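Below is our example:

___
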Amino acid sequence: MVSGAGDIKLTKDGNVLLHEMQIQHPTAAMIAKASTAQDDITGDGTTSTVLLIGELLKQAELYVSEGVHPRLITEGFDIANAKTLELLESFKVAPKIDRALLVDVARTSLRTKLNERLADHITECVVDAVLAIRKDAATVPDLHMIEIQEMQHESDMDTTLIRGLVLDHGARHPDMPKNVKDAYILTCNVSLEYEKTEVSAGLYYKTAAERERLLDAEREFIMRRVQKIVDLKKKVCDEADKGDGKKYGFVVINQKGIDPPSLDVLAQNGILALRRAKRRNMERLQLAVGGEAVNSVDDLTPNVLGYAGLVYEHVLGEDKYTFVEECRNPKSVTLLLKGPNKHTITQIKDALHDGIRAVFNTLQDKAVVPGAGAFEIAAHCMLMKQMDTVKGRAKLGVKAYADALLVIPKTLAINAGFDAQETIVKLVEERIASGGKVPVGLDITSGEPTNPVGIWDNVVVKRNSLSSCCVIACNLLHVDEVMRAGMTSLKAQQ
């Protein structure tokens, strides 16, 4: 895609395409909104939704052009959609949700957007990231606890999972340690710099000596806070050093500012301090290193401190990154995206979103659906068999819906370089021959029917896609006329 500014974007992600495209036609805009909403809710199924809505309208047009009323077709669509959703509940598989299954699900999603070698590498990172932030088997993980950090450096295969946090800034003092091992970490939201009063207040002095005393008092107020942090560091590190002979470090990560004199004092005491950490990272830090974030330095105790085995600064050009690694039991992790250029990193980032949501959906659904077009073939055969039970001309709508479902395996066949009609005939014949007992999907390497073991789709993605496709297609079929609203329509008449 080429933007108005001349930026070029290469993508296979339907959601990215629909967000970037400038769509003018009202029908197309409505379909695009439904598809992007699908991605927002489930994280996948954007392209499938667009294809299915388009095919439903295409099949309906064949009957409308012959004089069949749209109401009869939409009635058939509703009947067919209800039967298809019923089939989905019986067709889904509920195996043991282990790491191997989650890897298969993530791989199925990522291979549609990235090259095979890179997709397989990132699959492991995605699954391990989601499992790391999962507190227990009963709770659903909070995906916001996965930080996605970009670094334009090395190759895309160097993208990795950091079991800790990567902050996109470094220490602000040249004398601070750049590499701290066995670090106690204080996360705080305390101002360590001079701030003006909230109300308009003025201090008056008569002599230069009085002015100096006022400045010293302001400085002393901040230095008392800094000294309390230094005292805690000495207490904790000295006790730990005496206990096992190891040398421990101390790191301060503050959400508010730290002025140069305070940084100087912290550096003299061997403390690595980071200021103005992003708000979103404060909660992640607590989950990664443990401890508690404090809003005051009064009554500081060792209990509020977290721990990391290694904290170090990495300089890349003019940018600094601080790595917090080797945490004891991190419940927040970082996916570090690397690539030689911005385009590669953006492509990986778009795919990661879908991969993470695919794993999340599997944990939430506790079930999966066989992929490779197997469900669509099964639904088509089921609807064609049950079409005789539908009375009246509504059965035309059921047939149109059944034929429209075949657009998914047809598209898979075309993308793999095979004849669409020939492939569909093979798949349907194999499904009927198996008596509906075995899922029948498309093997894209040979073009032959296969049992799609290891290729899984999400239940929630299929369910939402089928529901929204039916609703949007029915609404569009009920439209009699498109009218331009607002002042522009009045101006056009004049």
About this structure: The chain has a mean pLDDT of 83. The chain has 16 helices and 13 strands. The domain at 16-94+369-479 is CATH 1.10.560.10 (GROEL; domain 1). The CA atoms of residues 136 and 262 lie 42 Å apart.
